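Running low. Invent one:
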Amino acid sequence: MTNPAPSILPGLGFRQRFPLLALILERFVLSLVLLFAVSILIFGGLEALPGDFATTYLGQSATPQAVANIRQDLGLNRPVTTRYVEWLGNAVQGDFGTSWASKNSVSEQIGKRLGNSLFLAGFAAVISVPLAVGLGMLSVHFRNRLPDKIINIISLAAISLPEFFIGYLLILLFAVNLGMATFPATVYDSMGFVERLKAIALPTATLVLVVLAHMMRMTRAAILSVMSSAYMETAELKGLSAFRSIVKHAAPNALAPIINVIALNLAYLVVGVVVVEVVFVYPGMGQYMVDAVTVRDMPVVQACGLIFAAVYIFLNMTADILAIIANPRLRHPR
């Protein structure tokens, strides 16, 4: 008597036994592959740019021998693949090399700047996320009425204006005309927490206005799509008030798309602070990267680009995982 053939493959069996874990592992592996591909694009793209650091550093009057000496000292004469493998291996260990311009450790400088950028983005997120969700629910409660129309008009205006324009308007109004805010937004290690909050008031307000409108409108759209469901009509027929039915039934069932849009905007808060930091002269990662681009300091530009990409990919992966956990159909597929 022969043994029956297995009905499913081992890989398929793992997916059937642990569907949630399989989906999470799949997202994690895809994120690592994507980050590896982005690292190739960052390194290869910077290598493909015309000119180099040696020519920029020495100026137009540099002799070919002087340029060749600097290229030799920096290792630019070695094959591109060798330099990429060495750079990626060191980056995985947290070593981004030495700045060509300042001769300082890139990792140490990024450690200080990244903390400033995360502090600014985190404080903006603490304000914008609850405010966006609350305004979205309020807009649904008063849909097609005056409060809903006012919120929509303001959100459309905020989406239409670029962040640098909003930043300059806030500087002109609150720093120049009223003298209520600090400009430039300079922070340093010995500053107290309250002093830091005062210093970042204007850049925080700019980031909040930029991401608030998008999150609020997506929250409104997600909840409205749930409001047309049969169980929402049942909740209203049972006597629940409109706002209570939104909070208790509509918002939890619209959680997955809301989580996605919040995570995407949080990623923008970290990655998109470049323009805001330059406008307010804030000593963060964005300002550090722009300064490095002007002098073609490639180790700094490569490190900043890779960190920005890693943060963006990580937050997108987190959004996917949270959306899977929040969706019963994905947690328990048939």
